[in-house]
Write the structure tokens for this entry.
Amino acid sequence: MAAWTATPAELAAQGTQTLVEKVRFCTGGPLICFGHTQSEYQAWENNNVGGEKQKETFISRYVEPPRASVEHLVYLSAGQQFRQGDFNLITGQPNDFKAGFDRRDEEHWRTVDQRSLAFRLFSEGHRDPINTFAGLAFDARFNLDFTLNNKDEIADAHYEWLQTKFFASNLKSVYLAGHSRGGALMLHLAERFRRDFPDVPLIVHLFDPVLNSRQGELGVLGARLINPLNPNFRPYEFDYFGHFPNRNRLLVYNFVSGETIDPFLDIPVAWSAAQRTGFGAQAPVFNNGWFFQQYFNQGHDAIARSVARIDDALEDLELFAEPMIQDYCDSQPPIARCNVSPIFSYGDFATVTFDALGSTSQSGAPLTSYSWSFSGSSQQVGTPPSGTGIGPQNVTIWRVGSNSNLVGTVTVTDGNGNSASASCTAHIQEAIDCDGFGFCLEPEL
């Protein structure tokens, strides 16, 4: 994937300020609250997410080109939020980002940290704002203690909303990254994207993701592992290999701390989720191609506030994800179009014109050849025609019996060798009601 370099004007358009929206807010007087879900976030209503949960969900449409232009999807999430909101370098959100939000406020502008993953994805050319939708979940409201049914409803809402940002036929990559409970949400979303878009490149970056082991969320195991860099940090074991049976064009990077989350916060004591890499001491770094896991001697919150970890994520994108995406883009077949005029003719024979106008490349390589073949009942008379080029291909068709047809098929090939075919059909029918001067009425169809 070729690097894109931001201009100052483009950076200003997506850069350090972003509009943060509450999914639901209050209408009515100071003592009355009529809950209103923003039309943009109707997916939360569609999936029966509770009103109070919606009111605590804060999302930014950080970069939003027209839907028809979107080829790459990015969704980044901070972890579970406390008080007025916590600083995080995944989304770039500041401390206390909720401060100033009245219950009737639906949106406020907030600053995105220039060191953050969100900002640097674009400023350093890893994604192009022209064809990338990027959403930031400052508070995804995907809390640890919610029931499994609540979690499914919320994950379905996020997923349904994200699907409104692109057309499936245009999608060329999905990048999901999250910290703590935001990482858990990304695991839920990754499962859905793999199910519905099994061939589209999927990149998942997990910054000490936390699953609810008491609930067995996503099948997390009760066994504990030991961080080889700090024996006091002990993540839960999670079967990432089992969670991702389809590893086609998949990259997962798991940043592991395993520090105990503060038991005095209003959530159960919890630890992050790591893949077992052996029956003895765990490998500090594990890499099997699609799955990369690395332990760090950093606290749970520190791992999402570390510029060095953001550097690691961006390096992974540059070295592994972007070549994978480029290979996928290079292999996309062209869109072939076949046109014929007229579609219907009358008499013993007629000349019709075939062309491939409207055929387009999807790989970025220009279309280099058009190969035509023809078949059909009209070939019982005359020599089967063939041809090359975009057209027009002028072909004489002969009627056999009361009606005949000629099917033209064009195979379009691009400079990468990708091909696609399309067909169209010309029909010829017997004319009726001819008078003595050679004028014939066409039969009704």
